[in-house]
Design a protein that fits this description.
The chain folds into two domains: 129 residues, Creatine Amidinohydrolase, Chain A, domain 1, CATH 3.40.350; 232 residues, Alpha-Beta Complex (Creatine Amidinohydrolase), CATH 3.90.230. It has a six-stranded mixed sheet, sandwiched between helices. The model has no long low-confidence stretch (mean pLDDT 97). A hairpin with a 2-residue loop joins strand 13 and strand 14. It contains ten helices and 19 strands. The longest helix has 24 residues. It has 368 residues and is of the alpha+beta class. Helices cover 35% and strands 27% of the residues. The radius of gyration is 22 Å and the shape is globular.
Length: 368
């Protein structure tokens, strides 16, 4: 599928949304949505901002990319070539000009948006639903990204050593990402007792003694893939091995339940049962369990009451955890099964049986 064809598919989805909500236009301004609309193009400066530095406006008359005079030259040179969008430039110092342009280009009609733009109606949920049903080309990109992220964390984990500070481990992992043309957007590192204490451990100056957890969410083409790996120096303690096996059992159960047509609530019920069967019935309450991925780190989170439905061609990252261990890969759901896109051949794996299905999940890497 060419980029122009991919943009056309997405334009059809937007047109259906405009008809459903009786809109004169749809304005996309989130980083995730703009990358989606531009077929993997990037329109960010600060990655910690949800808002892109450009916006895509769809109307019945035509489709536009709106950006100020600082950003448009790069967009024209590197992101918009060959794409059927008309560029609209405005001064960076005129704060209200973009909203005025949106009104002009839609003849003052109703506009849906995923950002807080004056005069628009927020449609975050419906727009996200268009975004996370991946086209075949987006699925290919997610596979590519997953392979790069898996290789980056695999390589970094094999190079750490006792005595290294968490900051140094984070720097090593970050370097491995950039060497593979991917950008780390979430980078969590914990060593030893911090793994037991915290589910979201940002790196600190603590030195590694024997045990490390590396957590990565990496971005390319606007897509995001997530992966977690555990490393232990010396023999793995019996209780830690038991917890890791239990966590892998939960992870395998939730992956096995992620099939087209399943609801998030149904999957979550399977996950809760898996925790109980593994001997840790309450651990799911200590951390979110993951959910759908795509152009956001999590397009939606699974909860007991969630009603979202799984679609073929959709990405997921489940991250069950038990105090001291965690299991996480990014997977791609297909009609015939689930494909793990962040797995690498070098990483040790453990085989888990879920009914008649046999799955391999990452084990703890044991180093001397």
């Amino acid at each position: 599928m060419s980029l122009e064809a991919e943009v056309g598919v997405k334009r059809q989805r937007i047109a259906a949304l405009m008809e459903e909500y009786h809109l004169a236009g749809v304005l996309l301004g989130r980083n995730s949505s703009v990358s989606w609309a531009l077929a993997g193009g990037e329109a960010h400066v600060a990655l910690n901002s949800e808002a892109a530095v450009a916006a895509v406006l769809y109307t019945a008359q035509g489709d536009y990319v709106l950006a100020n005079a600082i950003e448009m030259p790069r967009l024209l040179a590197e992101e918009l070539h060959g794409l059927p969008f008309e560029p609209v430039i405005f001064p960076w110092y005129d704060a209200g000009r973009r909203a005025a342009l949106v009104a002009e280009l839609t003849d003052g009609g109703p506009v849906g948006s995923d950002v807080p733009e004056v005069g628009t109606q927020r449609l975050d949920g419906p727009i996200a639903a268009l975004r996370y049903q991946l086209t075949p080309e987006e699925q290919r990109r997610l596979r590519d990204l997953g392979a790069r992220a898996g290789a980056a964390i695999d390589t970094a984990a094999g190079e750490i050593a006792p005595g290294m500070h968490e900051y140094a481990i984070a720097g090593l992992l970050s370097e491995e990402c950039f060497l593979r043309d991917i950008t780390p957007v979430v980078l969590l590192i914990a060593t030893d007792e911090r793994i037991q204490r915290f589910r979201h451990p940002i790196p600190t100056g603590k030195p590694l003694d024997r045990y490390a957890m590396l957590v990565l969410s990496a971005r390319r083409w606007g897509l995001i893939a997530s992966v977690t790996r555990l490393v232990h120096f010396g023999p793995i303690p019996t209780d830690l091995r038991r917890r890791a096996a239990a966590c892998a059992q939960v992870d395998a159960a939730v992956i096995a339940a992620t099939r087209p047509g399943a609801t998030a609530g149904d999957i979550f019920a399977r996950l809760q049962a898996a925790y109980a069967n593994a001997g840790f019935p309450d651990e799911w309450q200590q951390h979110h369990q993951g959910g759908a991925v795509g152009y956001e780190g999590r397009e939606w989170f699974a909860t007991p009451a969630a009603t979202e439905v799984v679609h073929a061609g959709q990405g997921f990252a489940w991250n069950p955890s038990i105090a001291g261990v965690k299991s996480e890969d990014t997977v791609l759901v297909q009609a015939q099964g689930v494909e793990v896109v962040t797995a690498t051949a070098r990483w040790p794996r453990q085989t888990v049986q879920v009914g008649e299905l046999t799955l391999e999940r990452p084990a703890i890497l044991e180093l001397d």
